């Protein structure tokens, strides 16, 4: 498992080179933008249970066969496993965002997941749909652009000071996309 710092070391070592200017500048940026990163992680983690239940409910709403006999969210044991898996995925995305590196997500969550799902008959297209919904929720919470119309009674805004979160938003998006491509 690597983070932005250990990644820079491993990359430099592979080239038998000292850690040079560009790498150091990237790490300086990582530190300078550190509070934004922590706010972004907090925005996802604080809204995790809402995002997970909303994503799984939305996925089922669009494909109600999932909760009928023969569907992979039926009976309750499978529904619980599905909710748990969505929560696992979101949790590993927050770890990757905190570390600034995808390796924790790759090694501890995505490695072998597609094969496990194939063996258990868990539909990956539905899982991908749930991940897409969690992605939209997470990006909205990072940027505080979620709306009461979509959030309903559970609507909450983080209220962090506004700044340029575009780099963090696309980084967070890339971790969700990584989950989607690992299952595709
Ligand atoms: C830390 C990394 C990690 C991951 C990723 C993980 C996934 C994982 N999901 C599983 C099951 C499962 N996963 C689902 C998930 C779903 N079914 C659906 O229809 C939806 C599309 C989807 C939810 C979005 C279900 C229903 C099962 C149970 C399948 C069964 O037992 O028949 C199992 C089999 C063992 C078990 O039931 O606990 C594993 C290992 N476990 C881990 O430790």
Would you kindly provide a written description of the structure presented here, covering whatever features stand out?
By secondary structure, this protein is an all-alpha fold. It has two domains: 1-32; 34-183, Phycocyanins (Globin-like, Orthogonal Bundle). Helices cover 72% and strands 0% of the residues. It is built from ten helices and no strands. The radius of gyration is 18 Å and the shape is flat. The chain starts with a helix and ends with a helix. The relative contact order is 0.15. The model has no long low-confidence stretch (mean pLDDT 95). Phycocyanobilin binds at residues 56, 66, 72-73, 78, 81-82, 85-86, 88, 108-109, 113, 116, 120, 122-123, 126-127, 130.
CATH architecture designation of the largest domain: Orthogonal Bundle
* Gap between N and C termini: 23 Å
Weakly predicted, low-confidence segments: none
Mean pLDDT: 95
Which word captures the global form? flat
CATH fold category name of the largest domain: Globin-like
List the helices and strands and how they pair.
Elements: H1 4-14, H2 21-32, H3 34-46, H4 48-62, H5 76-99, H6 103-110, H7 113-120, H8 124-143, H9 148-151, H10 166-183
Helix pairs in contact: 3-5, 3-8, 4-5, 4-8, 5-6, 5-10, 8-10
